[in-house]
Amino acid sequence: TIEERLKVTLPDDIGYALNDGVVLCHFINQIRARSVQSIHVPSQAVVRILI
Question: Which InterPro entries match (predicted)?
Fold first, then answer.
């Protein structure tokens, strides 16, 4: 599974987890190392402001 491959636990709403692209970028880097050089992880403060 994706969770085993990335060594993370995803929320039940997989669409929400994939929404910002961070998980997808990590998954791509697992398939082909260093394909995505920089992954921007939004801070929780920004997420709260956007909600």
Answer: CH_dom_sf
- Could you state, in order of their start, the residue ranges of all structural domains in the chain? 2-50
Rounded CA gap, 11 and 51, in Å?
Answer: 17
- List of residues 6+ apart from 16 with CB closer than 8 A: none
Tokens for 46, please give them.
Answer: 């920004």
Q: What is the pLDDT along the chain (51 residues), one digit of tens a residue?
A: 778 877 778 778 878 878 888 888 888 888 899 998 988 877 765 555 554
d(C-alpha 31, C-alpha 33), whole Å: 6
